[in-house]
Every structure is written in C-alpha cells, then in structure tokens.
Design goal:
The structure is a homodimer. Chain A is α+β, with helices and mostly antiparallel strands. The first copy, chain A, is 39% helix and 22% strand. A four-stranded antiparallel sheet of chain A has the order 1-10-3-6. In chain A, strands 2-9-4-5 form a four-stranded antiparallel sheet. Chains A and B meet through strand 7 and helix 4 of A and strand 7 and helix 4 of B. The structure holds a DNA duplex.
DNA sequence: CGTTGGGTTGAGCTTGTTCAACCACCGTGG
DNA sequence: CCACGGTGGTTGAACAAGCTCAACCCAACG
C-alpha cells in the first residue's frame, strides 16, 4: 500500500564507504536528470548535500509513488521513466493533470499535510526521494534552488493552464493531436528522442488526460493513421505530417 | 494599449507629505486584502516597505491589467473587484483559467520576460501594482513572504488541477454547479457574503471558464431554476438547495 | 424611439458516449 | 502443446449531450 523501496542503488553505499569527498561518491554526476529542476544550479558539494537528504527508489509500472490524501511523505525527483500526476475520481476514474518526465519533480504539493494529487508510475521509473523536511530546509538555504522551485511551479501552472484550453475548446482529434505535440515538445526539452516518439501510456491514460473515452482515443488515432498524419507501431509513433498535426491542435 | 493608471489613490501622497512613520501613512492597515497572500505575514514596517514598491490603480470593467505576450510589467495584488486570468484564443475566444478574488495576486507568471496570461477586470477593480523588480527583491529578502508566494502558487495549481477534472469529466449542468460551489467556497475564504451570491461575470465569461457556449450556460441555469435549486435576480444568486447542487457537481 | 448588448429559447445537426462484439497478445495450467 | 482467461485495443450502431443558427426578449442609452 505504502510505496515500497524496490531497490536502493548501490552507489550511495560506495559513497559512504569512501567517506572522502571524491567526485565518484554520488551518482548525480552522470544522472540524466542532473540538468533539470532543483539539481540544475548545483555544483558538486551542494549536489551531494541534496542527494544525501534522500534515497533512490525504483517503481514498477502502475505503482503509486503517492496518493492524494495520504500524509505528505517524500518529494520525488524522477530520474527515469514517466509519472502521471492525477486526481482520483469515484469509480476508479481519474483526471490526469500532467505527465512528469525525467528531471522533473512531483509530490511537492500538499494540502493540510497531505499529498494534493496521486502520483503513479506510467512506466518503470526511478526517483530520488527526498525527505520533505530536509528538502525544504535545503531549499530555504539555497536561493538559486528556491528560484528553481518557483520556476518549476510556474512552468506547471502554464502547462496546466494550456491544458485547460485543450479540454475546454478542442475536439477529440484536436486533443489527441495537441497531446502528441506537447509530448514532442516536452521530450525535446528533456533530451528524449522523438523519432520515433515513445508512447508508453495506455489508451486509458490518454483518455484520462484528455477527458475522453478510450474508444474516442482509438478512433482519433485511426483517423490520423488514415490521413497518413502518423504511423503507430506498438509503443512507437512516427509523425509524418507535423504541420497537419499542428493545424488539428489549433484552437 | 498599455494598462493606464486610471486613478492613483491620494493616500500615498499623504504618506509622503508626512514623512514620519505614522501608522496612518499607508492605507494597508484598513485594506480588506491585507490578510491574504504576500501581505499576510507583514507587520507595519515591512508592509510599508512593500507598499512603497508599487502604486495603486483602479480598473474599469473589461479593462486589461496585462496581456499575454506583452513585456512583463507590474505584479498586481487585487484589493477589490474580480480579475479573470485567461489565455486568449483565435477569433476573440479565450479560456479563462481562474478568477482572482480580492487579496490574491495575478500577473506574476512570465515566460521569457512576457506575461504568460491575460488579466482582465471582470468588475470595477483596484490593485496594488508592484514593480516586478522591486517585488522580487522584497520577496527575496523576506523568507515568510517567499513562502507565501510558493503557497499561493501551489494553491493556484490545485485550483487549476481541480478545474481540469471539471472540464474533463462533468456535464454542462455539473460544470455550472461546480462553478457556483467553487465561487461560494472562494467567497467564504475571502470574507465575501454568499447569500445572495454576487455573480458579476457575464454568461460569456462563465462559458469561457467552463468550456461551454453561452446558450448552454443559459440552459443550465434555467434547469437549476426549474428544479428550485436556486433563484437568480440580475447579478445575485440565491442557492436554495446546496446539497442538490453539490450532487450535480460530483464526478 | 431606434439601437445595442446581454440573455433566453427552440430546432436540427454534430460529436462523443455507451454498449457490445471482436481481435491480438500473452502468460498460466492442464 | 494447446486451451484458457485476462488485458488492452479496435470497430460498429444507437443514443444523448452540447453546438450552431436563428429568432426573440428586455433594459439601457443616445
């Protein structure tokens, strides 16, 4: 029920055994998420300090990192995989707010000491899971990190604000087109290849994100395939006509 | 085009003339917005300091405080009236993200030095308009204010996250019901009476907020009136059956 | 007194949902 | 090795919800 630590990386142990501040002590230096969010402004010393306020965890597909309403535990920085931040609804339904890509943080928001959203691994995922107390303390004593936190909050707000327009104004095909384009943008910003475009989320995930039924998602993809806008092979999408896709996603 | 200062309050002038730190120097002490957002943690001295980083402005109905894409100017704390934060769409349409009540801040978010949203006065409104540079400096040197900013960002994020679910999952009547309940909650939180409920926004505003057409809004209200859930008189709504309304707004 | 803007109401159409059948894939157990 | 059930995805037909277009109402205002 509570998120279990599936595997704690070996590297932190090595760092402890070598109790010197050797550059090899923390895995962050080679972490693909290093360049994003709160880790971005950090040099070695402070990166190490932050690293040691948490543990590394891995998560299976469909495993929950945190659940809305549960006492607010760790803050998660995703280092690999994709996490869906969502609001649970009656009868097993949910509204996915946004997808968290490697480098970004989730589980930050709390309401009266409880997580404000669900966080669910869409793929196998790894996280640095920081003690909330220590994380806040670290942020409080590092101006640039604090700025990074505010920047990240602002970016989420913009993302979600845009998504509101998608939900409020676009037709089903438009929403799917917009979803794909957003993914392409976000993947680009996070150094993930987009040809082919990795699409690990199920039809149900996409439906819960776009406020549609899975059948409608399926039909939208069928339409896009028929019009030769894209091609789908399992979890890989190849976009042939980006321009056309962009037109469909226009308001 | 640029938001014009309609009237600069007389009070700041008085405070300047009396160059002592008399408690009458700033109007904040009697400001209804004092207890909210960034002003909340401030005592007299710091409140005065913040106050002096900006000017007071008043806005007419339908006037824009700021426009998405324009160079990011002041940050606005609304002291009276209601402001709609929205994203403009082609052909004069828009998606309203949220309504800003007295006490809250808008115009904070920027993207590459430009405002990230539109801000439009729904009613006559007054604001404290702070120089962005000075505001950031003030926040940077006041830990508790900085926390207030992050808290406010988090609250917006939750608000908008919830609204995503409304747009994605609810039927038209449900959306209208949810809108009214949200308004009641927010009014309560901001010390505004809710019997009757002041409804200054036009059908078009509500439609742009809920992702519906004005005709649909009209029909939803008609349905609620027929079912004796509420009563409407011009800009005043009296809710008779809050429970029923809550059921309609359920997911 | 005509015009204008905001709101309501009706009729027909479009879009997405619902419900159902069906398919491909995959792991399990007989 | 094949039969089986489970999961995720696709497709079809009927239905319902919201949109479009149009007419109409009312109050405010010049």
């Amino acid at each position: 029920m509570a998120p279990a630590v599936i595997s704690t990386q070996a590297l932190p142990r090595r760092s402890r055994s070598s109790h010197t501040q050797s550059a090899k002590a923390i895995p962050c230096l080679h972490c693909p998420a290093k360049a994003f969010n709160v880790c971005k402004p950090l040099g070695y010393e402070r990166q190490k300090e932050l690293f040691e306020t948490g543990v590394q965890q891995t998560w299976r597909r469909r495993q929950f990192l945190f659940r809305m309403g549960d006492p607010a535990g760790p803050i998660f920085k995703v280092t690999s995989g994709i996490v869906a931040v969502s609001r649970p609804l009656p009868e097993g339904r949910r509204q996915i707010s946004l997808f968290i890509l490697p480098g970004e943080v989730c589980g930050y928001l709390e309401i009266n000491g409880n997580y404000a959203f669900d966080g669910e691994a869409i793929t196998e995922a790894r996280t640095c899971s920081f003690s909330r107390r220590k994380f806040h303390a670290f942020v409080a004593s590092n101006r640039d990190v604090d700025d990074a936190v505010k920047t990240a909050l602002g970016e989420r707000l913009q993302q979600v604000g845009r998504q509101q327009a998608v939900l409020g104004q676009l037709t089903s095909t438009g929403r799917v087109a917009s979803f794909l384009l957003t993914l392409v943008n976000d993947y680009n910003a996070h150094g993930i290849q987009t040809r082919p475009l990795w699409l690990p989320m199920s039809r149900a995930d996409i439906a819960d994100y776009l406020g549609l039924r899975i059948e409608t998602i399926s039909r939208a993809f069928a339409k896009l395939k028929n019009r030769k806008v894209l091609e789908i092979d399992n979890e890989a999408v190849v976009i042939h006509d980006l321009k056309h896709l962009a037109e469909l996603a226009e308001f």
